[in-house]
Design goal:
The structure is a homodimer of 162-residue chains. Chain A has 162 residues and is α+β, with helices and mostly antiparallel strands. The first copy, chain A, has four helices and four strands. Chain A has a four-stranded antiparallel sheet with strand order 1-2-4-3, with helices on one face. In chain A, strand 3 (141-146) and strand 4 form a beta hairpin. In chain A, helix 1 (2-23) runs antiparallel to helix 2 and helix 2 packs across helix 4 (119-136). The longest helix of chain A is centred in the N-terminal third of the chain and has 27 residues, at 29-55. The radius of gyration of chain A is 16 Å and the shape is globular. The mean pLDDT of chain A is 90.
Chain lengths: 162, 162
């Protein structure tokens, strides 16, 4: 209980710090938001790399891409976000949609549509965490998140083929 | 286990982000370090305020200042840093020294004297957490930390009398 609160509070502070810091810089509004998202995503990326290394150090290797995605949805999600992904969909061509109906980092915000505009900044770090984990498992990807009703959230993972 | 790693990794990223960001600003080196410390301390302060509110919501009220400090050393320390303070000293005039022989946020760094110069930046956030907690318990304080041999650490709390 303590640790999760510790993490959640620090996460909130970090988001607000990154945004405040950018506000004091000159530049266009849209550009600033993009910079903030990118900073948070980058932090998440490095954390995701570290986490997956610890988590898989005694695991057998994975069969294929789908096997990796299943691991992300079950073990990794439980390890990081304390619940499993509720639904995983794929087009079998490298695009995956992970639906979490009660995403941890959104549960502190009011449910419903009121703060929908605020959601993206609380998801950037998590997108990075997922991308970092996949990256250390050998998959380059683009990870984005979409919220239509809090605290439910859809992550889209598009694997980049070389 | 997962949550603590999640927190520790995010903490590391945050420290490195705050330092990197200041490096790109113009200004003197000493001044920059002071700004970084102050940013991290400020984040910790707000987190400490939040944590203590949760932790004490069902607690009876405290008898006196020493009673509060004992609570910080036992319950609060365990809640936040997963162990109790090893030793608490006081001059009975508002100064307290809390010694933690194996401080959580230093255990990831090499033990010994090699990285002693790096320690302060990993302690600023924690000093803030303690100061924030005390503040919400009605005690204004100045909290500093000192390391002479990692991962052991001494926090000095000086209560500010009005």
């Amino acid at each position: 209980m303590a640790d999760e609160v510790l993490f959640e509070f620090l996460h909130m502070e970090m988001v607000s710090h990154v945004y405040k810091e950018q506000q004091s810089n000159k530049g266009e509004m849209d550009n600033k938001v993009a910079i903030c998202i990118s900073i948070l995503e980058g932090m998440g990326f490095r954390v995701g790399q570290g986490l997956i290394e610890r988590l898989t150090k005694d695991s057998p290797s994975f069969k294929d891409e789908l096997d990796i995605m299943k691991f992300i949805c079950k073990d990794f999600w439980t390890y990081v976000f304390r619940r499993q992904v509720d639904n995983l969909r794929t087009n079998h061509q490298g695009t995956y949609v992970l639906q979490d109906n009660k995403f941890t980092l959104l549960t502190q915000l009011s449910s419903g549509k009121q703060y929908l505009d605020e959601a993206p900044k609380y998801l950037a770090y998590s997108c990075g965490v997922v991308r970092g984990a996949l990256s250390n498992l050998g998959l380059d990807s683009v990870v984005t998140a979409e919220v239509s009703l809090m605290p439910s959230c859809k992550f889209q993972v598009v694997i980049q083929k070389l």
